[in-house]
Amino acid sequence: MSKQTVFITGGAGFIGLHVVPLLLDKGYRVRIFDNMFRGDRDQVAKLAATGDVELVDQDVRYGGAVHAAMKGCDLVVHLAAVSINKSQADPYESIDINMVGNHNVFAAAADHGVKRLVFASSASVYGDPKKLPMHEDDRLDPLTPYCISKRAGEDLLAFYQRSKGLNWIALRFFNVYGPGQKPTAYYTSVINHFVKRLKTGQPPIIDGRGEQSMDFIHVHDIARSVVAALEAEQGNVPVNIGTGIDTSVATLAEILIKAVGVDVEPQFNPREVLVSRRAADITRAREVLGWEPTIAVEDGMTDLIKVEVA
Ligand SMILES: NC(=O)c1ccc[n+]([C@@H]2O[C@H](COP(=O)([O-])OP(=O)(O)OC[C@H]3O[C@@H](n4cnc5c(N)ncnc54)[C@H](O)[C@@H]3O)[C@@H](O)[C@H]2O)c1
């Protein structure tokens, strides 16, 4: 049987570069569609050397380009987006790429009759959660153009499902971290900030009591969830992808102190902070995708620091 081809937008970015090798291991061919705004050309060149990966250097804002490039592909992964922190500064760009871009990819996938489209949604569709853990059926309250585009993306997928039979899964990624992440990444800026200080022997400084928390999920587990979503029997649902564990900023500081191996205590900066907390209910990920997180946050953070030091 000839190999199936996966079309992956944003495939040259942080998460994409962890997904592509898993797809190759599974015997797929891969067509990366990326404007290389944040893509890594060297990594793509290494993957292309396998003979099973090609790069289309194009922009999701151009519907015709997306449609033409997707021809002949069996499955689609849509990761291309601009990040949450840019979306408040430049809503126009965010809407162009994240809203129009989503639509171009979904419409093309529906037209080409692909077997499954996997969309990178985000935990930010929930806004500030009222309770933990956060469940897929909880009320959505997206607060910025980026988050609004993720929620609208899920709604558009349901539209193309009803009108053209498109089969989809939207993965609501929680706080992704791991090797290859750019230091400017929104969720992980706190990791970088702490590690920078620890490497010069200074204690991390925590605002308030460090009670605000995130559900840190390793990029390798994220990549596994994307492959599982392409292959899952059941479709047409959003699925949370996290560990289910909320790690407070104070706990993160302790994990990083241990990982870097310095003898300091975190310093607390007494001030009022808005405490937001996050943890995913991952029951549906287990049931629909047969997926479990495999990397504990302590191990993932420790490995990350080893890689960065080496
Ligand atoms: N990293 C996280 O913590 C996180 C959390 C939730 C959701 N997500 C979502 O996962 C997806 C991948 O995130 P990432 O962390 O790998 O981001 P990233 O910025 O590393 O990768 C995005 C890729 O998309 C490409 N791209 C950007 N604009 C484009 C355009 N107009 N046309 C074509 N390609 C374009 C970039 O060049 C880059 O290679 C995004 O949709 C993001 O919103 C990420």
UniProtKB/TrEMBL annotation:
Keywords: Membrane, Transmembrane, Transmembrane helix. Residues 6-242 form the NAD-dependent epimerase/dehydratase domain. It comes from the Bacteria. The chain crosses the membrane at residues 6-24. The keyword Transmembrane helix applies. Belongs to the NAD(P)-dependent epimerase/dehydratase family. This is UDP-glucose 4-epimerase. It comes from Micromonospora haikouensis.
